[in-house]
Amino acid sequence: MQPEAYRRYRDSYQRRLFDQVIGDGEVLAATLDGEDRTRVFVPAVALMFGSALAEREEYVRATRLLTYGLERIAEDEGSRIREVGDADWFALRLIELLTLLGRYGEAWVRLPSLEEPTKPLSTRLGAIRGRAALSTIRGDYEGGHHLLNAATSVIEKIHSAFMLSTIEADRVVVLALSGRLSEATNLADRTLGPLTEPLAGPRGTWASQLGAAVALTLSRVCIEAGDVRRGERYLLMGTAAAGRAPKSYMSAQLDLAMATLWRAQGSPGTAEPVCREAAQTFARLGCRPAEAAATLELAKLAEARGMITSARPLFERAVSEMAFLGQPREHREALACLQRLDGTRQSLQLADDAAFRPPSG
């Protein structure tokens, strides 16, 4: 028999009353865990609590609760998790959050069990997409492509045009980051529409978040490649999609893309405070990869303003963070920027030495 407090808590979660779920979660879990007959409800409470925290962008706490809940399920076959959702869904949500926080190794080791042939097609699809994303982050673009091809094969069994568009959106990122920018933009123009146009319900929110993330990533890659006009077009597309899925993280990604555009347009002074606020937001959320990207942009902005002394520690920090996270593409970019800056400093020093060298004779 379900305790009344648990039943109310589950109803609050299913009605998406996340603030109430967060407020009641800790006390309820402790109460249920205190008695043998109610202990089986604790994993479900932990997962609902963690999922609610993720919705409110408390990502670090969310990962702890989701990890705890999934571990308790593995230990307790009597868990009541099926009353509130599929355990695989919560496992995929945890992998998504770990990736967002830059904890790639932890995310990677959780994927194999979700890719097993006995798993539902939707679970396998989510796991394959997760592995493709991690492969791309690690610089294995060919592996990312192969995995997305495998995901396409799974979708053919589901017969979902919408899900196929999500795979193609993933492929846009792989193409763009691997330097195949023309192919990326051609594919984006064909496939991003369903993800950036208004859709109702939770699926619409999810689609808007994915569409915004892909469009803003593509915008920054285009701008860095010198195609500012096309980068601005994708920025506008990402702005519209982000507005339909209001989150601090996505707003900060929008600010980062905007700062990149303003720097390219010759307005680094305007871009700097916007980029700094984005970096602070990423830091508050615990999203180290995004914070590192914002730090790199802050370094570029300082360099563009002629603030060579200020730029160097920012470049050094970006290089260090990208190396720690295991992002080879971004690490190479940051290192190249630092080396270029050192060359600029050496040239300026030589010019100063020549200007103040006493006349001979």
Question: How is this structure best described in words?
Answer:
The protein is an all-alpha fold. Among the domains are: 85 residues; 67 residues; 76 residues. The chain has 18 helices and no strands. The termini are far apart.
Q: How would you summarize the topology of this molecule?
A:
Elements: H1 4-14, H2 18-33, H3 42-55, H4 59-75, H5 87-100, H6 104-109, H7 121-137, H8 141-158, H9 161-177, H10 181-191, H11 193-196, H12 201-224, H13 228-243, H14 248-264, H15 268-285, H16 288-304, H17 308-325, H18 328-356
Helix pairs in contact: 1-2, 1-3, 2-3, 3-4, 4-5, 5-7, 7-8, 7-9, 8-9, 9-10, 9-12, 10-12, 12-13, 12-14, 13-14, 14-15, 14-16, 15-16, 16-17, 16-18, 17-18
What attributes does this structure have?
mainly alpha; 361 residues
The beta-strand count equals 0
Shape: globular
Based on CA atoms alone, the radius of gyration comes out at 23 Å
Runs with pLDDT <50, length 5+? 350-356
What percent strand? under 5%
Distance between the termini: 101 Å
Question: Structural class of the helices, strands and pairings?
Answer: mainly alpha
Number of helices: 18
One letter per element, helices H and strands E, the order comes to HHHHHHHHHHHHHHHHHH
Mean pLDDT value: 90
Tell me about the largest β-sheet: none
Instruction: Give helix % range.
Output: over 70%
